User: Fold these one by one.
Assistant:
Number 1:
Amino acid sequence: MSGLDLVIAGGTVVTAADTYAADIGIRDGRIAQIGHNLSGADRIDATGLLVLPGGIDAHVHLDQPTSDGTTMADDFASGTRSAAAGGNTTVLPFALQIRGQSLRACVEDYHRKAQGNCHTDVSFHLIVSDPTPQVLGQELPALVRDGYTSFKVFMTYDDLVLNDAQILDVFEVARRERALVMVHAEGHDAIRHLTRRLEAEGRTAPYYHGQAHAQIAEREATHRAISHAQLIDVPVVIVHVSGRDPMEQIQWARARGLKVHAETCPQYITLTADDLRGLDMDFDGARYVCSPPPRDADSQAAIWQGLRDGTFDIFSSDHCPFRIDATGKDTPRARSSFKYVPNGIPGVETRLPILFSEGVSKGRISLQRFVALTSTNPARLYGLYPQKGSIAIGADADLTLWDPTLTRQIRQADLNHGCDYTPYEGLQITGWPVRTLLRGQTIAQDGRPCGDPQGAHLARGTSEAFAP
Ligand code: URP
Ligand code: ZN
Ligand code: ZN
Ligand code: ZN
């Protein structure tokens, strides 16, 4: 049988379950055959390469306004080009509700920003910063039915923080509508207390951001989020978990059968609080300021254990890029105190190479775990499976061809993001994506995006976190 548009021939197919040699036949943008000696109108020789389900980065910030007027370094065009070059075929950015704004208007705003500009598929999570009766009673239920099946709530940040009563309200809507809530778990009052104390002592350099956002505050908020989820009986994802202490809370919850899922990110296996020192406790440390901040060697070891043993379901970038210049991090206010440094670092393009190299190439995790953490589990958890996240007949032909032997350093000069630095400059990587295909079309090759933006917005189904 033929009629195939394209065959990926001679590669090693890797899924979350298996590794095997096979050709993949693509028709009309979907996987139509998996077998041997396939032929079609077109052919890509994948000899010596791994064929992976396209990366799904489930935590990406693009073109978000900030409360102090600094601009994010990536819009939907540059952010998704960067994602494609890094082996991703789908990203899940946020539609951030500004207080006073209708959530529906907010979503439409982000659609306008994304429309016609995306090189990968995209689908929005909703950030709920103003859970009014209208938002809780009408807008969220309607939006979930339209395929926006995940929300994020914040336990810190002045302009986003919800109090416990509000979090419980959002959890209740999520339970009723079967939406998955992502929680930014850091205790706001503890952070503010530590911030005031550090500022009074004249400790205002970026390094002290890491001290103010103490791991104890993350642990406490993680436990509080878990307790609230238990009270309402709703599944949650604790996102960007930074270290051992919050992990222990997640493991405590799991041991009790609570439906608590967890995400971690590249910064927590590659960076430490010491990176925020910069050159000499100077402003250079601002390039590593993100929340939660990177911790220490002990937490890195704990995170690796959690990536192996299933404590973590997903590995996302938390790409949140600000340039290290006056348009981004380096403002007079930010120089006056760490608390004004925009939080976030770029990473959508380097997420997969970092986990592959530090994880698979160094023997810390299996290929199956790599695929599960970076593609299959994000698809399952966020209602995209089985259209996305696997290599199977009928699935979208979203594929990443990977050269496990290719070795080079991460260098800002080679990246495609809109940021002017990478926090991973000089990191030696073994294993890089060499070609990314979205629905059978090549969207990046050898580290460069190619072609016109073909990405679509995906309406999502219910999270598998609601499965019995
Ligand atoms: O510092 C970070 N991670 N900024 C992005 C916003 C968030 O909390 O995820
Ligand atoms: Zn967050
Ligand atoms: Zn889970
Ligand atoms: Zn984030």
Number 2:
Amino acid sequence: PRPILLTRHGESQDNVRGRIGGDSILSEAGEIYSKKLANFIKKRLKSEKTASIWTSTLQRTILTATPIVGFPKIQWRALEEINSGACDGMTYEEIKRNMPEEYESRLKDKLRYRYPRGESYLDVIQRLEPVIIELERQRAPVVVISHQAVLRALYAYFADRPLKEIPQIEVPLHTIIEIQMGVTGVQEKRYKLID
Ligand code: F6P
């Protein structure tokens, strides 16, 4: 069995402000997480000869991976957060106030709702296909540092959760989800590194 470790980036400045999307850097708590994560990975993958660290192309995931040393890092555009198009950079409150129809449509069908000039969860699931194929092909452990919507979709794939649940799956910050693929099926552990 080989592990796949899934985690969101450390808390970003936009997370603190409640703004979606964007390309902000880490908050202080996010930086602390990046160091704790590096420590955790060092111990967890101590006995592994090879492993790789996958991030998106957004700063917050690259910065979260920075303290990790000794393993190759790969950036994937396909691991970028759901594209919130016209709503990028807004808070949920601002969307509700300024674009009430958009807000309502998303509430009604979060899986299929597509942001104006952006993506839906279904779009994200589709663009993740090459990432999943490559993840399945890997023999060594992979650490995936990505974003909330993307990790919901990846997690659902490995944990065999139904499509309709995906937009609601809990993927908290500062938590590592370890997935073990064995002959007997999939096992899961969660490690919370900061409260
Ligand atoms: O708030 C963090 C974030 O990653 C946003 O960038 C993104 O739009 C959102 O979460 C996705 O979560 P939800 O689909 O619940 O809005």
Number 3:
Amino acid sequence: PHIENSGQIKPIDDATVHKICSGQVVLNISIALKELVENSIDADSSIIDIYIKEFGSESIEVIDNGTGIKKYNFQNLTLKHFTSKIQQFNDLEHLCTLGFRGEALSSLCSLCDVEISTRHYSVDTGTRIKYNADGKIISEELVARQPGTSVILKNIFSTLPVRRKQFLKTMRKEFTKLCTLLYAYCLIPSGIRYSCTHTTSNGTKTKVVSTDGNKSLRENIVNVFGIKQLATLIEIKLVRPEEEILNEFCVSLCPGDELPFEIDCLISTAVHGSGRSSSDRQFYYINRRPCEPHKLMKLVNEIYRQFNSKQYPFVYLNITTKSSLVDVNITPDKRQIFLQNEKILLAIVKSSLLEAFKDLPSTYKM
Ligand code: ADP
Ligand code: MG
């Protein structure tokens, strides 16, 4: 045996446990940004501004004009499993916030330097707070600011040397993924005005995205991807699946049964595919939560391939269903989702897409 007392089973110390688990919650910079953006959305913000330095390796800052944070929460906010969003398990059934696990900020503290500046709307001054790796307050000072919250992360993954090194090698690619994830939040009609600016270490500034905060999906698509992209899209109307498609997915529906899903979908026409990979410009949501429903994504791409075998489509697909039929608590990043009646959903999406494509000219068809 290489380890002293190797036969004895002993607890890992708390700080080590915390670091090990945090690395699983915040896997990469996209998830770090996603957690901050979701917190700003949950705080009822109407403006969210993001500033990223050197592809995220220097800093990531998210500034919102939401409710702000009350003084008595300054310490609780970064403690593991402390949340203002749920109190007991049953609350998940009618969850209306994106967060609920109370572990993003505590995890971020153990992975990078975290500084929060906030002013609750009920008070006149703001406070800037710095936290240590255990999420404990190191310093607190008064600052002048508008109501709302700014969270700044510096030196991300500095406490996980292997991940930091890997990230520095691949940061341009990671940054592209981060932008795509951010677009998912910008596209969904929410009335929130987003902006994101990237500054490189030599001072070059680029605007990654900016939306008007309009409530329309089409306007958001124009803001994020330009008018040309919008012109290539068609709207998919929900079609009740016929017996044949239901059988294919081994499900049945009685004639009078209400469908358990509604869909809201724009997709490229068959002659207007674009992306070289399916992850390029495809955005899926369940009850407006951006996520990666793998089976649905695979199905959409398979069907599209029947009409255009050379390209991938732009996809915007939001599924609406009762929140009691959705389990988002599968992975810490909540990107995987368990859906009751998933096979019925697949049948609905298949019928709806086939109906929409049937009269359109296809291209590159094999
Ligand atoms: P969760 O979002 O799951 O509750 P987090 O660790 O992301 O857990 O955040 C902890 C708590 O901090 C939240 O429940 C919320 O009360 C508060 N909080 C975090 N970010 C903000 C913000 N931008 N504005 C207001 N409150 C915030
Ligand atoms: Mg959160």
